[in-house]
Design a protein that fits this description.
Layout (H helix, E strand, L loop, with lengths): L7 E5 L5 E4 L5 E6 L4 H10 L1 H24 L6 H26 L6 E4 L6 E3 L5 E4 L7 H13 L8 H10 L3 H11 L3 H4 L1
Parallel strand pairs: 1-3, 4-6
Antiparallel strand pairs: 2-3, 5-6
Helix pairs in contact: 3-4, 4-5, 4-6
Length: 191
């Protein structure tokens, strides 16, 4: 009886028959050297439903990978990344200057970075770092991150006092913080 799939037989000095289905949908039967083709065929027939299940899973996985590869944007060129970082520098410089005046705070240098794990930071010297990918987020999220980092100039922690400073400037800051938690990862997938 013909199986609904092709398979390759690899003979070796092993003692038992074994079937392997690879993630790219190839079926291999590993067999002892003296095993007859009819015996191998019968073994494959007995395991047909399991093999078909594995092939179906492999096909589904391949489809998902192709879909996610098609959905993923092409990697950024150095030139494009530099352009986005320059744009981010301009935006964050203006926003930081604006909020620092309102909050009556000073700050040091502004650095634009691309860090997988941080949106912003404030050093003990008052230097601020911002992730350029934030410019892809809604405006209120940028404002929140700027105010958050500037608030560290008063409170170098995440205490109630710290969040009171943030809230005095942005009463709705929780919405922006929630957006960043829920959607931050998408900023890596946009461009």
């Amino acid at each position: 009886m013909k199986q609904p799939f092709d398979y390759e037989i690899i003979y070796s000095s092993r003692r038992t028959l074994a079937i392997q289905v690879t993630h790219d949908g190839r079926v291999t039967v590993r067999s002892p050297k003296g095993c007859s083709r009819s015996y191998i065929d019968a073994f494959v027939s007995r395991n047909e439903s399991w093999i078909l299940k594995c092939l179906s899973r492999a096909k589904e996985l391949k489809k998902q990978q192709e879909h996610s590869a098609a959905a993923a944007p092409p990697p950024l060129s150095k030139k494009d990344r530099a352009r986005y970082m320059e744009l981010a520098r301009d935006i964050f410089t203006r926003k930081t200057d604006y909020y620092a005046r309102i909050m009556n705070l000073s700050y040091g240098r502004i650095t634009i970075r691309e860090q997988k794990t941080r949106w912003g930071s404030c050093s003990s010297k008052g230097n601020l770092n911002f992730n350029w990918r934030l410019i892809l987020a809604p405006e209120e999220v940028l404002d929140y991150v700027v105010v958050h980092e500037l608030a560290h100039r008063r409170e170098m922690n995440h205490s109630q006092a710290f969040y009171a400073v943030v809230e005095s400037i942005l009463p709705d800051y929780r919405q922006a913080r929630k957006w960043l938690r829920d959607n931050g990862q998408s900023l890596w997938e946009m461009i």
